[in-house]
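Many introductory courses stop at the sequence. We go one step further.
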Amino acid sequence: MISGAYIDLANQEIDLAKNKIGQEITVGSIFFGGGTPSLMQPLDIGKVINKIKSDFHLADSAEITLEANPDSVDKDKLSQFLDVGINRLSFGMQSAVPHVLKTLDRTHNPENLPKVTGWAKELGFNEISVDLIYGTPGESMQDWQQSINSALSLPISHISAYALIVEPGTKLAAQIKRGEIEQIDDDLTAEKYLVADKSFSTAGFHWYELSNWAKNDSKSQHNLSYWNGENWWGIGPGAHSHINGERFWNVKHPNSYKEKIQKNELPIQDSEILQASQIESERLMLSIRLTSGIETKSLNNQQIQDLSTYVKTGHLNQSDWQNGRATLTLNGRLIADRIVREILL
């Protein structure tokens, strides 16, 4: 599907979405992600933004983010993205070390990051984010520190750092299974998180979600909407949506997507109505990741009893606990999944 044709289909899906949820909707954020949307023409991106503006109420303060591969943009293209309404850029950096990028099967040149972020800042982008991945097999602590230092040398306002998860069936999983690449060292991965948090904090970035740090007023509003369980509509093949307790997802194959849109049908493959227990479980799993944590008055007696153990061990903040909130300490962030599993049982 060529870019222009795809954009026409995406805008038709926006029409169908409008018919389902109505026009009296205020859109607080738009996020162009998945694949490499920065390969698209800025005018096509602008068509989608203008369509949303015309069909809904786009908030004056709306955050409009574009994910970008640093190899896929130049200064002129960034300028055009700014002109059509993009006001936040998220660059997939992953690492500044070539051999780590090779293991991750990422092809971009790390030397391009200073250039593209510098251009973006010069053009007037005030919100620039980079994503890092840590825990890659073969990545030493020195490699990780090099990536941290490289990221912090850029004119950014936000940084994400995610521990590598090796998904079954991937090339990397097969390489590890065959012994071609070493296993992930969980203890070293945890140590890398601590090193990252210290470096980011020293540089003026404040953690607000388990894997995200931002300078003042630069949190990702789009991601916060996910973590807070708000509504969103995903446009395009394979996109997921959540509207008022209903979760649904589009067909993945571009041809199937095209066929449904051309029949004036929502391209939904399947959906589910979330049960109250699911909604509550997701609230707990996501809330514990945020600095605001979980209000203890929203928990039952057994959950409070279970969590109080982690207050004693220093994994939950004692002062916040006394003020009615369960919030993670730095050490608590290292075992966040274990803590939340305990209160979901």
